[in-house]
Specification:
With 285 residues, this protein is α+β, with helices and mostly antiparallel strands. It contains eight helices and ten strands. The chain is globular and about 55 Å long.
Length: 285
């Protein structure tokens, strides 16, 4: 691992990259979707505007969205790596990134309901540590998830009689389509959907959000889930909600599904909705 100042600088660069540069797989999907939309349609106009916005953000090195979101970090570290210095480096990096304009000072304290005027600590932030065998290359991944898309995340408990959804993959499918339908373009569609099947409530939300780190063009190693991801993407786009909820194609750019072990009494389906601005980046440490 690098020393503390090098680590802070690397994390500032990670924040800059995530905030200002949309991942290439997301940009490719947006461009492909625009080409499939009829000329003059609202969908094509919106997608062209999104593409222009992404290009300007990268060229000018400014945030791709005014809501710079809650930063969620995942650190992959060799087993035994001390984590306290990393947490300190994250906080310092976020303060510097805010001063540089890559993050917005937008934390509201509870229950005072006042804005924190000094140090930047949105979400305080969210930090996950994953430990690897000795000798592995350490790396950090960051996801900046805006509040509008976070508001559209949902959790279901199966069986769900209102959806006629049982405790099986067909029931999971009904829950995910319900979440997409209820979003109705809010959260800035076209969206990317992360899903967790199983787990307990808190861990399931973390697992669902972690699915958003997967590239759009990857494949689930579990064939049944890979097929379900493909089916949900197709069926979600057939809903016709469209970019920003104004109709047309696409409603979704991707669907990614993970699983966690569950208790016999609980069968949760957790949906993490992300807007088109799926701002994620990874750096080695």
């Amino acid at each position: 691992m690098m020393d503390s100042e090098q680590l802070v600088n690397r994390l500032v660069d990670l924040i800059r990259q995530a905030s200002t540069t949309l991942p290439q797989d997301i940009r490719n999907a947006l461009r492909s979707s625009a080409e499939k939309s009829p000329a003059g349609s609202s969908a094509r106009t919106i997608l062209a505007t999104i593409e222009e916005n992404a290009a300007l953000a990268q060229t000018r090195c400014v945030p791709a969205c005014q809501d710079t979101g809650t930063p969620a970090f995942w650190f992959d570290l060799p087993d035994g790596t001390p984590t306290l210095p990393i947490r300190d480096a994250v906080r310092e990096a976020m303060n510097r990134a805010t001063q540089a304009g890559y993050l917005r000072l937008n934390v509201i304290l509870v229950p005072e309901e006042r804005q924190e005027p000094h140090n930047y600590a949105p979400g305080s932030p969210v930090v996950h540590f994953r430990f690897l065998p000795h000798g592995s290359t350490p790396r950090a991944t960051l996801l900046l998830k805006g509040g509008g898309s976070e508001n559209q995340s949902r959790q279901y408990s199966l069986p769900d009689h209102a959806l006629s959804a049982g405790r099986d993959l067909e029931g999971v499918r009904k829950c995910v389509l319900d979440a997409i339908w209820k979003a109705q373009g809010n959260g800035c569609s076209p969206g990317i959907i992360g899903v967790c099947i199983g787990g307990e409530r808190a861990g399931a939300y973390a697992c669902a959000k972690e699915q958003l780190l997967r590239p759009l063009d990857d494949h689930n190693p579990i064939p049944e889930l890979d097929n379900l991801e493909t089916r949900l993407l197709e069926e979600g786009n057939r809903l016709g909600i469209g970019p920003m909820g104004l109709g047309g194609f696409p409603t979704l750019l991707g669907v990614k599904i993970g699983t966690l072990p569950r208790l016999p009494a609980s069968y949760f389906v957790t949906v993490a909705y992300n807007c088109w601005a799926c701002r994620r980046a990874t750096v080695s440490l």
